[in-house]
Amino acid sequence: MRLVFMGPPGAGKGTQAKAVAEHYGVPHVSSGDIFRAEIGNKTPLGLKIKSFLETGALVPDPITVAAVAGRLAAKDCAQGWLLDGFPRTEGQAKALDEALAGDGKKLSAVVNLEVDPEVIVERMSGRRICPNSKCGRSYHVLYIKPRAEGKCDACGTALVTRKDDEMDTVRQRLDTYNNQTAPLIEYYQRQGLLVRVDGSGSPDQVRARLFEQLKAVVGR
Fold first, then answer.
1. Active site includes 75?
2. Domain membership of residue 186 as a residue range
3. What does the alpha-carbon distance between residue 195 and residue 127 come to, in Å, rounded to a whole number?
4. What's the predicted TM-score (pTM) here?
């Protein structure tokens, strides 16, 4: 099984992707994790990636594709994998298709978690985290409230809002997604690979819908 997970920031891709990967017994491959591993291991590729990230620039497609291809060639991916955070552009999608075709393989399905943009803004802008590096618990002003307002239940540290979760930043991230990644929905729809999943509701509700639709596609 070879799956790609798509969806706007805040749609819950990471949470659901981990559950699906565990259920099917395949590695959960995140482009962000790949980048961190390459940088941490100080590989030549990692040094290139680091140089782009440090300036706030997007990592160019050829470098991203090379990093992902190297990870998918690892032994633990021989029986399949789940890609989360890649591809992000049509160029990356075509490069992935070509790499798979070269090995006589193809994608099993592409899952797209669909959530109303305003729901995403509410989800992300309401998140609060504990900045204590030894704790790091997450909360939400509506859904996961701390016992004492503004303080971590575990260590008492004042909770903060990550810059990525500030409302203006969230809207900018959604705009970037709509411009760069959303066109992949049509790309995979044309190939008959797209599985649309309603991402609204609780994580358990989304997971139930997701597994039901995947079962119809992959047969288990």
1. no
2. 2-126+182-218
3. 28
4. 0.81
